[in-house]
Amino acid sequence: MLCKRIIPCLDVTGGRVVKGTNFVDLIDAGDPVELGHKYDTEGADELTYLDITASSDKRDILADLVERTGEKVFIPFTVGGGINDIETIHTLLSAGADKVSINTAAVKNPQLIKDASSHFGNQCIVVAIDAKQTGENKWEIFTHGGRTPTGLDVVEWAKRMNDYGAGEILLTSMDKDGTQSGYDIPLTKAVAQSVSIPVIASGGAGNVQDIVDVLKVCDAALLASLLHFRTLSVQDIKIACRNAGIPVR
Amino acid sequence: MVYSDTMKIVIVDYGVGNLKSVRKAFGHLGFDAVVSKDPAIVAGADLMVLPGQGAFGTAMTHLEQAGMVDVVKAHIAADRPFLGICVGFQLLFEGSDEKGSHKGLGVLPGTLRHFDGTHTLKVPHMGWNNVSGPVKEYHRHYYFVHSYFVPATGAKFEAGVCEYGVPFVAIAQKGKLLACQFHPEKSGDAGMDLLRAYLSCVSP
Prior knowledge:
By secondary structure, chain A is an alpha/beta fold. Chain A is built from 10 helices and 11 strands. The interface between A and B is medium-sized, with 29 and 32 residues.
């Protein structure tokens, strides 16, 4: 049976992990490669690196991180953060990334998703959506880290990206992100039911039950601080899922 | 790279797929692998590795254009160590029902079919799934990404079977040939164990 996935997400800048972690048994807990390897051995199903570097040599730094990650990490990994052209996607996939995640650039230029998926295959193009609730069962896309409203309806946009060849949707609730009050289940459900591609939920996990709950309506859960600060381990989550009858590896 | 002197591993570069990951996985296990687009070098391999991803037809066309078809066929016919991964697994079969209906290498019996025509699950079949079948050592979770599959029929070469709406061949094994529909280089410990076992089996 196809398993639901647990995906640790690491924010990186200049090739280093941004927020820090509470791993005590690592030589360098700020090294994204070492952390990635750690999560691989702990049973994470995939990894996501979100690059927030704002400099002109960003692409080279990210490509170097991808190269180094590939030496030590033997599960699929995605890179995202400011990716906005075919050339960058090509560079990152050639360096060894399995998928790229595209956010603001997809809103600015939806054609990029069509071009990228036909060039490289649907399976390696993830469209990231930052959603904010604007009414009852209504959510709008925001870009630039949740600051810029776009007027786009999340469910309609997800359907369109599905049609354009996206392989997955990474759905972040801006309302829930950082609150640890649980995922936005209605949002996740609304998107997952309207597309034919996997949906990864992100934002709001505060405990293991939150993760179990969201995995009942979508395909994967993205996690950051809960894992990085050792509130939960990947195995804690897998055990809870198994007990709840959710297929995990 | 302790074994590199004793076994020459060549990864076939025919312009399809993520060769780097495969090479790094071998490196991690202590085996140095060469990536080559030269049919002469590929023909001299002790262990030939055929990776690949994407569409069957495109991959077969690339393999033909790279002048690799006869080289691969001869290697397998001589029962020399051969590892096929993902589309490199699919190419071993007779063909696919993908539009244009392409012919494969025909080393193994069977035709690829698209998941779409058979059920309503999400396509591609992407993620971790468990393998069952006659070989117990293979009963692990592996990472799959594919839209076409070879229906399982209970044939002798079907060493591992997976299920996604329908049962399909996950691992094919025949003599010194091993081929898998999933990506062992992306399947964590299970993938590494599979590669390690195969390498120790075919190493001189």
